[in-house]
Amino acid sequence: MIGSANLNIMIKAARKAGRSLVKDFREVENLQVSRKGAGDFVSKADIAAEKILKEELMGARPTYGWLAEEGGEDEGADPTRRWIVDPLDGTTNFLHGLPHWAISIALEHKGKVVAGVVYDAAKDEMFFAEKGAGAWMNDTRIRVSGRHRMIESIFATGLPFAGRSDLPETLKDLARLMPACAGVRRWGAASLDLAYVAAGRYEGYWERRLNTWDLAAGVIIVQEAGGLIEAVNPEDDILTSGDVLCANESIYETFAKVIRD
Ligand code: IPD
Ligand code: CA
Ligand code: CA
Ligand code: CA
Predict the structure, then answer these.
(1) So where does Mg(2+) get bound (predicted)?
(2) What is the pLDDT of residues 82-108, one digit of tens each?
(3) Is the dihedral of CA 181, 182, 185, 190 positive or negative?
(4) Measured from the CA of 193, which atom of ligand 1 is nearest?
């Protein structure tokens, strides 16, 4: 698969930041950690990875805008294009030595994501997609699963933690979904949840109260893998509402009904 120049820039940046994170992950007990909110942590590893990503991405495309979790927002000279970056998605897993976290990089053009990279550096799984060019994991083209029976399907979500306000909705969702399906998973990295739906590892995923950087890259990876993705309320804009619902095409309607009703 030969991607565009921008996709190659994104993949190169993800690999470089990935090396920094893998190194920090080996010595996780020595990281300085602080809390941004009740259950929201940030460490030296998040900051170092974001610095590398900014140098690589803005170095290569200095006119683009920038939105990243730890470093805020800059409007670029080119108001139509923007990098959207989560340098370490799954910080809580990372800080516990759990190898399930990723780097998420999206390129937005005129308000739509046109390319996305989600890199699981611990497992060396590079998920990526570009508008019209399909979705990939390393050298392999990926597609959403074909399962269409709820009873055979597994779904992932993000369970709320301290400081998050979506507990009542999530409990209601779970009470309806759990008896209807083969299982619900909570892995702890939204970008990988989206990539896993794209790769057909589970049939669907939903979560509330996410940020644009958690979702942006995964949106196009799911779409290019043949999946459907919307905000929980389909009228809302997926990148800004923070509520996401996605699944393979065959089960989408049934799954969406359980969550939305
Ligand atoms: C978090 C993860 C997690 C989700 C949280 C996010 P972070 O991102 O994606 O799965 O449930 O809402 O904030 O803070 O580790 O980048
Ligand atoms: Ca965070
Ligand atoms: Ca995140
Ligand atoms: Ca993060």
Answers:
(1) 69, 86, 88-89, 214
(2) 999 999 999 999 999 999 999 999 999
(3) negative
(4) 10
